[in-house]
Amino acid sequence: MNEEITKLYSPTNDLFALPQIYKTISFYPIKVKDQIEQNLLYKIFAQHKEYITKKEIIKLTYLKFILYYFGDTKKVQEDIIKILEHITKKKVKIGYVLFDRTQDVSIENIMFKIMIDDISFDEQEFDNIREIVLQQNGLSVDYVEAYRPDLEKKMEFFSFGNDVDFVDEIFTFAVQMRLGMEEIGNMTVYQLNNMVERLFVGKNYDMLKPLEVSGQIKLKSGEIKPYLYHMNNKKGRYDQLLIPQDQWMDRNKDLMESSKIKN
Known about the structure:
Number of helices: 14
Strand order of the largest sheet: 3-4-5
Largest sheet: 3 strands, antiparallel
Strand content: 5-15%
Structural class: mainly alpha
Shape: elongated
Number of strands: 5
Radius of gyration: 23 Å
């Protein structure tokens, strides 16, 4: 997150499903049951442009980017209003001002603003809203902008044959935690993601740790995480494509030895 948002952002609020406050406006996290709003979140806040080579697109504010280059402008405006009204529980309007009133409306001559009740947000402040909304829903701007088409294809290859979907995950979590669907539906996406990860880390620990202690298995790298551990919420988009450094060194030891000889 940028420095301004880091100062005002409260991670504890995410833990207890409380809103984040920005310019007196409360931004509430999305719940698991709100599938339409989750889809809107990805559509409005999780579009990537960093891999695009056109400089005129990269230089645009994020708001102009999605309004001008992502589908029908009118529909996108309606979706922005819909998602913002859902997460703020307030009335939202989108307006604009012209830099030069003697000129026609164009991407260079217009500045959009968003009104949430009577509070105005300019294009740069919409970037801050985006950071807040992504972060409190288990994502980040860095994660979104890390998108690379070639690596996405590799990710699809690694997941080939794994047909576990959202429904499977929810039912499994419900059975393991002995929770009803209404309880899970009222959790935030952030809460669910964290709880699911910790549940399966715990299950892996119960299964694998006794085997490691008895010598029946030996880890080549890493460790078997215990129930209580610090979870890194700054995971890279393609972390699962990476290998630990010691594994890389072992696989390329011949190359390393050759380099030493030449030096």
